[in-house]
Structures are given as C-alpha cells and as structure tokens.
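User: Design a sequence. Structure:
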C-alpha cells in the first residue's frame, strides 16, 4: 500500500493540496491505514496550532508603540528630541482664591518639534490612580491638532506603564498607578520622537 509523504500531509492541512492529491488522501484515510491515520492526526494538530498562533499576537497598535520606542532608544540622539517645559502649575500655582478642588490637578505644557503638548494629571484623594489627559497641537497654525500620534508612558526601568493614540482632535487620555520618575514618548509622522520627563507626579 502506498503511503503519502509529510509534504503531502502538510499541504493537505493547509488547504493547498491539489484536488487530485486531496481525493487520493481522503480515499487512503477511508481505507483505515494506521500509519497514515497517525500522520493525518499529527499534521491536523500542527495545523490547528498554526491557525491559533495569530490569537497569541499582541495588538497591532501596541506593537507599533513598542517599535517606535525601541527605534528611538537605539537611534542617534539627534533623532529624539527632549520636550522643553514652558509651564508647570506646581511651579506657578493658581492664585489661592481659585485653587479649590483643583489643587490635586497638575497641568504642564511642553514644546518641541513645532508642537505644543498640553498635559493634565489628576490625582484624586484617597486613590492610587492618576488620570492623565492631554492634547497635541501644531504651533504652525491655530487650532491645528496632531492626530494619530503614538503616546507611551515609561517608568525608570524602561517598562511601559500605559499607551494610547491621539484622536482626530489631537486628544488622548490614560490612567496609571502613582509612581516616580516617569517619562512620556510621543511619536508623530514626519517628526523626531519627543521625550518628556515627568518626574514625580505624586
């Protein structure tokens, strides 16, 4: 009795075998050949594992964010730009009469690569979670938002804490647990990646 090669079984489980080969394989399986039934079961399991592999892949946007940060880490310093702090509400607080409940909110403004980055961090009392929101605008034109920018928050050990993308209005938001020495990476099309040290947000 003629048996089929491993190559033929591999093509069959992938659905790329010729109609003639498929018909011959099915007829051979119907003859209850123990050796080929074993081969069929083995290659069917391999095919199932291969098809399931895609479900183990991380989200595409997360892969893009990590690749952007990796590229910046290994690129020449000239390809990454530190953001310049132009306003920090903790350094220039609001007048006492209008602080009120906003005392737990920090606002910072950074500029770099022709962009203005407006960031707000709200640390609610009795909570270990910080809610961050922001907007990225182009300085070249009024009300010109930067959409589809990749935002990644990193800790001092180089681990990603949070990530998101800007919407069509240049807005973004995310939440994270309180910790020190954080930094933000902002990657936009046609510009160098921005790096913003956030320091202590507590």
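Assistant: Done.
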């Amino acid at each position: 009795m003629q048996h089929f090669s491993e190559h033929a079984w591999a093509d069959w489980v992938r659905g790329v075998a010729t109609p003639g080969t498929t018909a011959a394989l099915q007829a051979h399986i119907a003859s209850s050949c123990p050796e080929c039934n074993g081969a069929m079961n083995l290659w069917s399991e391999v095919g199932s594992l291969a098809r399931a592999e895609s479900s183990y892949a991380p989200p595409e946007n997360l892969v893009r964010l990590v690749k952007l940060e990796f590229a910046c880490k290994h690129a020449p310093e000239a390809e990454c730009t530190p953001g310049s702090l132009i306003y920090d509400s903790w350094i220039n607080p609001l007048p006492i009469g209008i602080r009120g409940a906003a005392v737990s909110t920090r606002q910072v403004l950074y500029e770099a690569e022709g962009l203005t980055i407006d960031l707000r961090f709200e640390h609610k009392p009795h909570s270990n979670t910080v809610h961050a929101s922001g907007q990225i605008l182009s300085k070249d034109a009024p009300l010109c938002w930067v959409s589809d920018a990749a935002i990644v928050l990193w800790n001092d050990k180089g681990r990603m804490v949070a990530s998101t993308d800007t919407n069509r209005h240049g807005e973004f938001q995310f939440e994270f647990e309180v910790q020190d020495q954080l930094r933000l990476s902002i990657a936009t099309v046609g510009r160098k990646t921005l790096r913003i040290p956030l320091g202590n947000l507590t």
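The chain has two domains: 6-56, 60-199. The chain is about 25% helix and 35% strand.
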